[in-house]
Design brief:
The protein is α+β, with helices and mostly antiparallel strands. It has helices at residues 4-12, 17-21, 26-38, 43-50, 67-81, 98-103, 133-142, 157-179, 182-188, and strands spanning 56-62, 87-93, 114-118, 124-129. Strands 2-1-3-4 form a four-stranded mixed sheet, sandwiched between helices. The chain is globular, with a radius of gyration of 16 Å.
Length: 190
């Protein structure tokens, strides 16, 4: 169960983005780095994310080998970089953290990436995954056979921007849940 007693220690066991990438082989790291280099937040997105006032703990369940993770994980890293004091991102390999995967299954499956958002005191706020709406729309439009794109495959710039916007919206949603929380407003007297 995703309680503070579970989420607090689990969050502490997570890896930084750089440490998570280091778990991959050179080809996997290169695939992630290419998408990271292609990813840019807009000025409006950066302003929004940097305005966050509540600490948001983010647990990203991923697979370094996963094509969807390659195409979305670097976006999460860029989002966290916009406000590193308030957006604390930790990475978890799906297979090494099967207990977390079991808590965050999607449609009965071990899907990744999945992101859990927690409060400063480790309460679950929400979770989201495995693909954003923009990502599902793009895949549906292509009607491709494989369920997961190959790591390193080129990412359409418009699809990347739309997927990034979806993720920014979800981070904003989680932050607003925290910002408007009666419990946290009383705690912070705001």
């Amino acid at each position: 169960m995703l309680t503070p007693a579970y989420l607090g220690p689990k969050f502490s066991a997570g890896l930084s983005y750089a440490d998570y990438l280091a778990t991959g082989n050179p080809q996997q790291r290169d695939s992630w780095q290419k998408v990271y280099a292609q990813t840019r937040l807009t000025d409006a997105q950066t302003k929004l994310l940097s305005s966050f006032t509540r600490q948001l703990k983010v647990l990203a369940l991923s697979g370094i080998w996963c094509g969807d993770c390659v195409q979305q994980g670097p976006l999460l890293a860029r989002i966290a970089e916009a406000n590193p004091q308030k957006i604390l991102l930790r990475w978890f390999d799906r297979d090494q953290h099967a207990d977390l995967q079991d808590q965050l299954s999607v449609n009965g499956g071990r899907r990744v990436p999945v992101v859990a958002f927690a409060s400063e005191d480790d309460y679950l706020v929400s979770w989201y995954g495995d693909r954003t709406l923009a990502r599902y729309r793009a895949i549906a439009a292509r009607q491709l056979g494989p369920s997961c794109p190959l790591p390193g495959a080129p990412v359409d710039a418009d699809e990347l921007a739309a997927t990034l916007a979806d993720w920014v919206d979800e981070f904003e949603r989680a932050h607003l849940l925290l910002r408007l929380s009666t419990r946290l407003r009383q705690k912070h007297q705001d």
